[in-house]
Specification:
With about 600 residues, this protein is mainly α. Helix content is about 75%, strand content about 0%. It contains 26 helices and two strands.
Length: about 600
């Protein structure tokens, strides 16, 4: 037995001696554990201390063997505790990792592992935040794609409900007894926009208080009921009520969808998945156009009934779908957050979710500390608190302003006015079919959005948005010149068609999808819902302003000056993006939040 034990000890020591040094052996093992398990720094220090103790026991055992003594089982350190070390599979790659970690430690500092006499002490760099993968980057994508697809049902309903009214509006007015009354016909359209503005205004508080999933369920109910009420309407009051209810649901979901997607999507494809929001809106618009072509205007009740289907899918999907793990973590519902993270991001989800908790906790502590300081400030001084008016000051003010301004530039650059006027433009060019004109505009929008989805995580948000605004400005100026310069009058129709499609393509490549993508990314978790809602309130208010003033402005000043104004606003938007909007490509939401809170420059 003595001989057998000594042989086993000698075998263990021979395995250890195959590495460069015993200290390299211990450091490499610890470095590999740091790579594979992603443990916190405190646990790594504890492991390092255990490794150092084990090395001292190994050295003591060797000295006792050389002296002809049998080491005790307690001092040898062999058995199950050495088993993981004796069965490492790739010692060469591990040694190379140690060199990398040692070089990093020489720069950044680290903890040393003491060995026995003659062994060098190699430092191990502390685990860094950048070394751990962003949430979902290493996990399966199918659960994330399914969650995003369910959320995008709300975006599809958004586009469908806004556009389905265009085809049968005259027929609806005749059946409801308001034919020829432009004001009441306008009420059918404007009631939806008014509801959307109010829904966006209320949506932020609901999303931050009740969570993303519950808010989706609350939005799905009126999104189903509104179109069904409109389908059953026999008078203008019922029709307006149904359209207003539909608009309120659209406003709520318009802020929820990009927020939810940004929180569940993996960092490296977050931009691409966020673009699906805008793509779903475009597909909803195209579907409404298609149903207007396929069904006669007299079948408008069937059209409204069909509008309830995507909303029903949204509600059913969210009943079975996961909540945002980040929102759950911010509410200290740790067990639920881990379950949701595992559903979305796979087995590594709970460990990866840990990276979001420090930022959420810091934000909450900042809010509580600021609230505690309210009484110590003189009256009339704004104090940074956890949401509300405090968003107008402190670190949350900049991303809030960026969101509001981006949607204002988007609308005042004339996108909805151009779409509204596109049928007339195509008629002047000899295209008499309004459906064909609308189809050309819608198809261009979809194609551009698909291209933007592929470029979002490559070129970046800022570059796409700047180039988009510049393209919109160039096409607006070209169309204004075609309408006003006598030398271009023979080509005015061609310039108008090419300019319109070029403008739509430019919009779809950046100004369409990027604002809804970047606004949730920039805003901190504690106020993300409210900030995104404020941005979409800006969207709807500016939308109504442009819609209400466009035709009167054209009648008063002419089309060329109005298009020139749109071009100037698009150019101003490009300058604003270039000077004020930071890039978020390739950064986790927590990294973006930390940089904005500390005032670090974001390129």
């Amino acid at each position: 037995m003595r001989l057998l034990f000594i042989r086993s000890v000698s075998f263990g020591l021979s395995v250890a001696s195959t590495l460069e040094t015993r200290s390299v052996f211990a450091a490499s093992t610890l470095a590999e554990y740091q790579f594979s398990a992603g443990r916190p720094v405190a646990k790594m220090h504890a492991t390092a201390a255990g490794g150092a103790k084990m090395l001292r026991k190994v050295a003591a055992s060797r000295r006792m063997l050389h002296a002809g003594k049998r080491p005790s089982s307690s001092s040898s350190g062999f058995g199950p505790r050495l088993h993981p070390f004796l069965h490492r599979r790739d010692n060469s790659s591990t040694a190379s990792r140690v060199k990398t970690f040692s070089a990093a430690a020489g720069k950044d500092g680290g903890s040393s592992i003491p060995g026995d006499s003659g062994a060098s002490d190699l430092p191990i760099a502390p685990a860094s935040a950048s070394a751990s993968p962003a949430p979902g980057n290493m996990g399966p994508f199918a659960p994330v794609l399914l969650a995003v697809a369910v959320a995008c049902a709300g975006s599809f309903a958004f586009g469908f409900n806004l556009s389905v009214i265009n085809g049968p509006l005259e027929t609806i007015a005749a059946e409801l007894g308001i034919a020829g009354n432009k004001a009441l016909m306008g009420l059918i359209v404007s009631s939806t926009l008014a509801g959307a503005a109010l829904g966006s205004l209320a949506g932020g508080g609901v999303a931050d208080s009740l969570g993303r999933r519950v808010s989706f369920l609350l939005a799905a109910a009126p999104m189903v009921a509104g179109p069904l009420i409109s389908a059953a309407a026999t008078d203008i009051s019922t029709m307006a009520a149904g359209r207003f209810l539909t608009g309120a649901a659209i406003g709520l979901s318009s802020a929820l969808v990009p927020t939810y997607i940004s929180e569940v999507a993996p960092t490296r494809i977050r931009g691409t998945l966020s673009t699906l929001n805008q793509l779903s809106i475009c597909l909803g618009i195209l579907a409404a156009l298609l149903i207007n072509v396929v069904l006669p205007a007299a079948a408008w009740r069937t059209m409204f009934t069909a509008a309830a289907l995507p909303a029903a899918l949204l509600g059913l999907g969210m009943l079975l779908g996961p909540e945002s793990p980040r929102w759950l973590a911010s509410r200290h519902r740790d067990q639920e957050a881990e379950l949701a993270a595992r559903r979305l991001w796979g087995p590594r989800g709970p460990a990866e979710l840990d990276s979001s908790r420090p930022a959420a906790a810091a934000t909450a502590n900042t809010g509580r500390a600021a609230a505690a300081d309210v009484g110590s400030h003189p009256p009339g001084i704004a104090v940074a608190q956890h949401g509300g008016l405090a968003m107008l000051s402190g670190p949350a003010a900049r991303p809030l302003l960026i969101g509001v301004m981006l949607f204002a530039f988007q609308q005042f650059a004339g996108i909805n006015a151009l779409v509204y006027f596109s049928s007339s433009v195509f008629r002047q060019a000899g295209v008499t079919s309004d459906a064909l004109a609308s189809a050309a505009v819608g198809a261009t929008n979809v194609i551009g959005t698909v291209i933007a989805a592929g470029l979002m995580d490559r070129a970046g948000r800022k570059q796409l948005l700047t180039n988009s605004f510049l393209g919109q400005a160039a096409t607006m100026f070209a169309m204004a010149a075609g309408f006003s310069l006598p030398v271009l009058q023979p080509y005015a129709g061609t310039i108008a068609v090419v300019g319109t499609l070029g403008y739509i393509l430019s919009f779809a490549l950046g100004a369409g999808p990027v604002p809804a993508t970047i606004v949730p990314e920039l805003n901190p978790l504690s106020t993300r819902g409210k900030a995104v809602s404020a941005a979409f309130v800006s969207h709807w208010v500016c939308n109504v302003m442009v819609g209400q003033t466009f035709m009167s402005a054209v009648q008063s000043y002419g089309l060329a000056p109005v298009y020139t104004f749109f071009g100037i606003m698009a150019l101003a938007g490009a300058l604003y993006v270039e000077s004020q909007v930071p890039e978020t490509k390739g950064k986790t939401l927590e990294q973006i939040e930390a940089e904005l809170q500390t005032g670090a420059k974001m390129t």
